[in-house]
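Budget justification, computational time. The allocation requested in the original proposal was used primarily to generate structure tokens for proteins on the priority list. As evidence of use, we reproduce two of the resulting records. The first is shown immediately below.
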Amino acid sequence: MELYYLITFLSFVKFCLSNREIITFITPENCSEREYFVPSLMTCKQCNDHQKSSLDRLSCVCEKNSRIVDKVSEFSCEPCPSNLTATLDHLHCLKKTNVTCGLKDIELETEPNGLPLAKTSCIRCSSGTYPSLDRTKCLPCQVANCTCPQISHEWLLDGTLCVFSQNLTLWPDERETHIVEYDVVGLDVESKYLKKHLRALLYKCVKMKHRMSCESLGNLCTVQMYKDERKVNPCRVFKDYRRIPTSSDADRLPLPWIYYGEGDASIVLNRKKITSKYTIRPGSRKSKLQLVAARYNLNGSLIKLSELSPVELQLCPGLWNGIESAFRFGARYFHTCDIPAKQFIGQAPTEPIFYDFYLQYDDSKKNMLYAIPLLVRNIKVGTTYPNKGRDTSQWLLTRRMFLIDLFSGISTKSQGLPTVIQYLKTIKLVVQAQREIENEGNIYPPFMVLEYGQITDDNISSNELCPVTFTVEFYMENDILHYVDMSLGILSGCVFIWSCIHTWSESKRCGRMAIDLWTVGQFAITCCSHFANMIFVVCLLLAIHTLLFYKAQSVVYILLPSQDLEVVVSRYVVIAFLLKIVEIVRLIWKQTTIDIFLVDWEKPRISPNQKQNGIMATQKQTVSIWRSYFVANEWAEIQTKRKISLPLQLLFTILLLKIYGLENWAVAEPEVHLTKVPYRPTSQLLEFGMLVIVFSIVYIVQWITTVAIYERYIKNCIQQFVDICSLANISVFILSADFFGYYIHGRSAHGFSDTDMESLIGQLRREEDNMVRHRGLMPGTENQTFEMTVPSSLKTYYRRVMAPLNNIQSKQISGSSFRIKKVDKTDMVKIGQAYNNMNKFLAAFLDHALKDLDYEIREKTFVEKLLGIEYSDPLDKGVFFIDDGHSFDQVIFYGNECTLVIFDLMMLSFFYVLTENIVLAGIITGFLIKVMSVIRTTFGKRNLAKKTLIDERFLI
């Protein structure tokens, strides 16, 4: 058993050392005069004795004075004797003569039976023929006059090749042999070219071991998308050669390398044999991949072997500035266009050029070539397309490709125009960098992903536009997706715990201590909110990390993740936005359903004594309601107040990205540019990172300007509202939940505010001179705003007082707006009594005048502030928590700025992902935010009118 494993291991080592996947970069010109070039093996082989290489270095010929000894088994030569000279075909040796033939003569060196003549003689070509260039025969040879036996032989190639019939039994002349299947358009064409050449090429390759014919068969196999189901097919020849060729294959059938082995894709694409290290530093010789292409004619002859220019892979017409940087290491390239179908007929060559690609790199100061495999999406095995899936173990890699095929679709019945045209629809060069630190700058074998399109007569007649795409993608396999999933998994636990705490706090504020359907619903909504933030933050950190390290690195530390991963991140952004919508809907619903009441501290005053009918009398003045209307209007105005201006936010974000050019930082190349780089696509991940960075910078600048400068030294609308409450002698009592809310203490320090202008100015002057008591709820303090938990009995009383109004409102409220229509005297009295009763009750509660209802004032503990909960039990006694001066803004937009700006950013990112246009995304975002603001204002006013018993028509 041990011997078996040893032999297997040694065989594998021998294969690795002898296979032709990695070869030294040489061309036919590199071969010496005694060597010939083997294109399929990309190497020079030594000619035999007395031989030299041909002029094109692609074969061996006998030396000047040598003759061919054996042409069948092994081509060898021997020198002629000194008194003889070799014939032109190097088959015989003749006596040296000085005979000069005429222009219409051919030189005869052998007898008709093949025996050599004693010396060279001349013979005149008959009428209708002429000497060949080498003066060895008269052309053309007419079939009727040729001596090829029709009974035992067959003519091939229009009568230029006579073959013994028994040698063609493997390749019968049947219609199925010449059929080309075009799977994309679902047509079968009997190819005129295959009918004429296929059997001849098969015979010359298999029987005669003619190298060019074998190369031509490889070309035909490529054109037929590597199908070998039929018995007679160009690809059937390669059935036993589906592997990486070795040096021993040079002595066998001279077939080109067309196929990799089945199931070898995973091994081939993950080898670490390319020793060259690449860099992202521009200008360096190692900052660009050097590709080499071996180009072949249709007949199998080698055109040339030289460096591949990206222009050669472009079917799109026109000039391509910057296309030479397509193979720039670490950068992406993308070029697409639509070509009219008729243009393929007019500009494409009749015979295509076939390519074998190699990567040129340096290894110990040697130029090496590494074979680049091809992944052709069109390859069909049975009824499946293995190369369209993601399972690399099922991929079938190949070697040869073409750009346009006009010849195979020419039918035997057509007049010269092809029935079907094949063209390279998509070509994508994929390069994966190795991520190990010790292999920094190394890459795995590049490969090309190809997909061919097909054009029919109908497409040509309608001149249909045919899409063509050329892409280059560099990426580094990493654990980013794993880290994202792991981060989301770990943070999900934190989100779950945090959501439980918030749900418990909300349930406690609503007086729901048991887990019921309402609690489950609140928990689900809270989870949506926190999960949205979590997903968005994880994607944001990934985008910013990639942007900073990709653009700032000087060595190959990170490359852009694959486009599939970027699509996954974009989907996460979409999911985060959709979850965030749930939170915003709940926020608006909660803010437009709060219980709010304006407590009027103003007391009726007695007017001075006046004579009425000669009798002195006192008159009790009523309290004006206009102060309450004024405060209600101010409250309605600040409901959608924000700390920033969203139109300015979007405008400056678009200006910086689009006009100033910061969006070009998201271009998928390591350098930073403010101008558009030709054919460089943007990375979705980098786009997302740049959008968030620019948006955040604009927001921070605007927030600092508003909070630190404008509100501090010019105008603070939230603080002004508190001042207005004190000026109007009205407090605002807000319940955002059954037992939790906010209180704004607006009781005037002067005792009254319903007065004339002169008295009002005097009150303000005395307050500036500190001649009156402080405004705070507690004596000697300035604390006017509080968070509060109220006793359950207070909420019970509130509901009891407001209950009689429900029937009145159902009759008197127009739609859902509180607009008093025709109210009878009884209902008017009920409304007035309800208002007065609630005002007196809340005033007494705030003044500690109720024996069974009371509250205490204290500050929240650190844990209560951190978790947003209250430890106090509101069943018997309320608690007023001293806040920072504006905690009540939690029931308006102003206090939810963080939630709203994240929602704005998510919405902008969402539409940017969908539209890939920042201007359009900004317009849609601005419009929807405005719609949201209008909805909040409208429903907020309606709720304010219902809860404060103020007619909505007075809310201007």
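The second record produced under the same allocation is shown here.
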Amino acid sequence: MEDRREFPAFPYEPYSIQLDFMSALYQSLNKGGVAMLESPTGTGKTLSIICSALQWLIDRKQHQKTQMYSSSNLRGQQEDQLGVDDEPDWMKNYVINKDTKSPEKKTKEKKQMGFNKNFDWKGKREVVRDLITNGDGKEEDTDIEKVNNLLTKHEVEGMDEAEFLVEEYESEDENGGRSKRRGGGVSVNSSSEEEKDEDSMEDEEDEARPKIYFCSRTHSQLSQFIKELRKTKFADEVKVVCLGSRKNFCINQEVLKLGSSTQINERCLELQKSRKKEISKISKTKKTGAGGRARRSKASSGCPMLRNHKRGKEFRSEASQQGPLDIEDLVQIGHDLKTCPYYGSRSMVHTADLVVLPYQSLLSKPSRESLGLTLKDSVVIIDEAHNLADSLVSMYNSKITFSQLELVHSHLESYFMRFRNLLGPGNRRYIQIMMVLTRAFLQVLRKENCQSNFDPVSNSEGSKTGFESSMAINEFLFSHNIDNINLFKLLRYMEESNIIHKVCGYGHKLALSEEVSALKNDSQSSHDESALSGFQALANILLSLTNKDGDGRIIISRRRPKCSMQQGGYLKYVMLTGEKIFSEILNQAHAVILAGGTLQPIEETKERLFPWLPPDQLHFFSCGHIIPSENILPIVVPQGPSAHSFDFSYSVRSSSVMIQELGLLVSNLVNVVPEGMVLFFSSFDYEGQVYDAWKESGIIGRIMKKKRIFREPRRSTDVEIVLKEYKETIDALSCSSSKRDSLSSNGAILLAIVGGKVSEGINFSDGMGRCIVMVGLPYPSPADIELMERIKHIEGFDTSSGKNTKFQAERSWYSGDAQAGLYILKSCKHRGKQYYENLCMKAVNQSIGRAIRHINDYAAILLVDTRFTYDPSERSSSHSINKLPQWIKGRLVSATKNYGELHRLLHQFFKFHKGKEDNQ
């Protein structure tokens, strides 16, 4: 590979940056390991990365074909094998490790594996949803349609309780013997006929086929990537498939009405299970020679979008012919053919060269297994990787609420009381264990028990409004006398038996019977919450308790109930380290690429995800921005028009003086800033507080005389609507007469939130973002107990030994008091405090980077807080300014003497670019 090679031309400039970028990446791909590539938006970063990776994949396949051809022609001729040792390691490994098993042998081995192929006790992770939604596949299992659909009075009264009796279960012995069940073993249910065909096709395909997996955080970012990919020559040379959630793909209107992702997932799986039962019944009818045609009810016929197998084939054919398609395109094909695009896209994975998918689908091991993704010898590209470590560990968190525990315990108790004399000893024992655990968890969260096992300081602080505390796993188990329970055996029982479906079915029957026999009481809304979701939450929290003691912490939250009839609180497991999780990806993939505009400091990511990685396996490349220096004007604004200093720290930011001074600044800025202007606040609560104060004082009215005001909504579903109106307002201005009245409206202003939907993945290019205003330093709340636990873990990590030492704070602390969290930060010497500051500045960098999106773009960036002020002569690496991207820091005006100077700089900046645009 030469340093410079012929890559396809791009719609970006300058080409030299892209060529250097792609060449460095290509070299990294040949070496393997981890590549961290930092490049601001506008350099064609994402497109450069994927083109380099696709070129590498094509070259690799060509080498593979050449090697296989040479081997077949020269087999047995030892003297003609000269030069084989010069082949890359991946080439030799790929040929040597190629699976040569016949399709029949593969199928036989899959059958022998049974259900346990998705269960990994050593990794303490499994497909938990299968634990809830998949039974043993037997015809006599409870029909989930009867569990989740409201039944008529006749159906409730006529239901036979015998069908809720769980089968006999014998526990495995302590020597590792297998568990036994009456009626045979456990089988895996396919979600659809398409998945069965997918399995058969996978048997015929080479399972070690290398791929490129490209993942990003949001659906919109993936759609942008697909559009960029279509501009390259690779659009016609590689097979691409885009994966997403059921909620984004589903075209069954009855299922979509459910709204939430959890309910849509559950309903989809239930429909697939009922469809399999219907097929089984029809098959049995044919075998027994029963006359007539089997009746297919609406409740048991499965999803109508999966009934026609031929349409599934048509979907794959149509999608393959049209080239790279995003989710919207695939959904449209599904609508046209009346077939499921979710399972249709999944069936295309095994033949694809490039798989485009969201973070969670690739980083979560259960999701990878359920999708059938094989990372062996493939390239994994993770875009927007600045928060990768936190995103990764958050996927393995688990939580169960007080109301879920009450519902699960009530169901278990009712079931056990009714069937205790009919259950075998194995079932009785495990159901009782589940009741003991749920009872213990409930006691932890009840107020009358909050005085036990905790520090007196916490009780005095928490007794008023409830409090949060944290415990290690072993401490939690021992303190609540549940350390003697074998959670591994219990989880296996929940997996292999059909106890959850039976309990939920019987509990639902009782609830419906009460509704029929008595008036429905609005205050008794426990049935409205899904029992299946409660059992899934219980399984997740039990699975988390099987992790190593130092991997995470148990958060115990007791909250004041909203009324006398309710109790608040929850148990939550917080994963603290992502090293072992990410190592599974690194060990399987040939190379992993972490890309983003703000990856530094890279030491933090390395220490949290792959501290064991040898230096020669980590490659870092960074390039500057392509815009000229005159296209950006970053300024620190330490004071407002009335000469009051800006200090938006938590203790003083809510003062009327600070809010009014900010209002005066903004009402003056709208007179000099053209088109679009975006203000970033630290939280929704603070933005609301500022807006209300401005409205009362008349500042809102002054601003609206020049710019229309938009506010980022709390509901993510409304964000797109607001952004569309914001853009239309600015576009309407640009389409109007060039001779604008200086007194008329000159654009719009958007009040946005740091860390919200607007701050990441949204392009405020050109007129949508001529000025970005960062209000204060958006430090995370020190009252966040999960964050403080993570900081303590990071502070105690020893990079030399790779172990975590116990962190010692100056005093005991509990959430609900921000001052208590500050004690933790004060006790941190270096790493924990650095992590806390990095979280703040990464959020700042992501927000202010929304404005500059291409080479001709220009914008002003205002950092409004006296804490941004710094002396260039003092080279303090810990100062927040030194954590800004180099392309911003190098052009930063460190501070303005007064508002008059700020106004002059902005006026000159926008006048210069207005004249430049007029000349063009």
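A brief technical remark on that second record: Residues 9 and 483 are 63 Å apart (CA to CA).
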